[in-house]
Design brief:
Blueprint: H1 8-24, H2 29-58, H3 66-75
Length: 76
């Protein structure tokens, strides 16, 4: 079970544990850095998607183009 919010100390412990686990399984520092970059990219995409969905829901349908209106209806 993963807590909804991790405090700073909990996040540091989790990161250190994950790092040790990856290094212990033969991952190089460059591979871990690459994995970290991919995770950041995924989180960024997820946040952008949430932001775009919120903006779409907040925009009245009469202000949207025809293609966007379908997305607006689907978001409801």
């Amino acid at each position: 079970m993963v807590p909804g919010m991790l405090d700073v100390k909990g996040t540091q412990i989790l990161a250190k544990s994950l790092f040790k686990e990856l290094r212990g399984n033969g991952y190089s520092p460059n591979q871990i850095l690459s994995l970290s970059t991919e995770l950041i990219d995924l989180v960024t995409q997820d946040l952008k998607g949430e932001h775009e969905a919120e903006a779409l829901r907040a925009t009245p349908p009469q202000l949207l183009g025809e293609d966007a209106k379908e997305g607006w209806r689907a978001a409801l």
